[in-house]
Design goal:
This protein is of the alpha+beta class. The chain folds into 2 domains: 65 residues; 138 residues, Alpha-Beta Plaits, CATH 3.30.70. Helix content is 54%, strand content 11%. It is built from 8 helices and 4 strands; from the N terminus they run αβααβααβααβα. It has a 4-stranded antiparallel sheet with strand order 2-3-1-4. The chain is globular. It starts with a helix and ends in an 18-residue tail after the last helix.
């Protein structure tokens, strides 16, 4: 009887020992596994960071290959600077002016509202600094917000000027923007670059951050 009791106690001790060993092994496995998972996470994070760096590098490369802000004169990527002056903004003509160019088929690649300082207006109209009306023109141009636009497309510099109409609204033909929406010379509602050199100067000035080089899905319906 005593022998059976002794064997039973010994068996129980062996069972508890094995259970304890397995428990300790499991704990050890979890302790060992934790840094392994941490290392794996670190590796994934490093890989992700590497991907981001590559993507960033690719983006920078893409920006380097992008068009200059003034586009390429003489091509379908020619660009011009157009502005809705303070009087055009006050009269709510921004949408009408944009619609004219969009419906014609031109592409808007830059758009923002700016309230120019007097110095900005003077720089913008520097080529007219010898004119008697220069002071009043700069004062008015800086009297309120303007809407700056960069338009892209074939012959946009010349066509843009024709779409705006004559500087003197009374000499502008019906159908042009000034011919339809303005009367007085000092309130002719919009400005447009008159040459590739002017477009380059004005776009660099008003869009120093650059514009958006995007593909227009309907271009195949605008150009051959």
């Amino acid at each position: 009887m005593f022998a059976r009791s002794a064997r039973s106690i010994a068996s129980m001790a062996r069972t508890r020992g094995a259970t304890s060993t397995r428990s300790m092994s499991a704990v050890a496995a979890r302790v060992i596994a934790t840094p392994l998972y941490a290392k794996a996470g670190l590796a994934l994070a490093t890989a992700a960071a590497g991907t981001t760096i590559i993507a960033t590098s690719n983006n920078k490369a893409a920006q380097c290959d992008a068009l200059p802000v003034y586009g390429v004169p003489g091509t379908n990527q020619e660009r011009t600077f157009l502005a809705v002056k303070p009087d055009g903004v006050q009269r709510g003509l921004i949408g009408d002016i944009i619609a004219r160019f969009e419906k014609r088929g031109y592409k808007l690649v830059g758009l923002k509202m700016v309230w120019p300082t007097l110095e900005m207006a003077q720089d913008h109209y520097a080529d007219l600094s010898k004119k008697g009306f220069y002071g009043g023109l700069c004062k008015f141009f800086s009297s309120g917000p303007i809407v700056c636009m960069c338009w892209e497309g074939k012959d946009i510099i010349k066509q843009g000027r024709q779409m705006l109409g004559e500087t003197q609204p009374l000499a502008s033909k019906p159908g042009s923007i000034r011919g339809d929406f303005s009367i007085d010379l000092g309130r002719n509602i919009c400005h447009g670059s008159d040459s590739p050199e002017a477009a380059e100067h004005e776009l660099k000035m008003w869009f120093p951050e650059g514009v958006n080089d995007w593909g227009k899905a309907v271009d195949s319906s605008v150009y051959e």
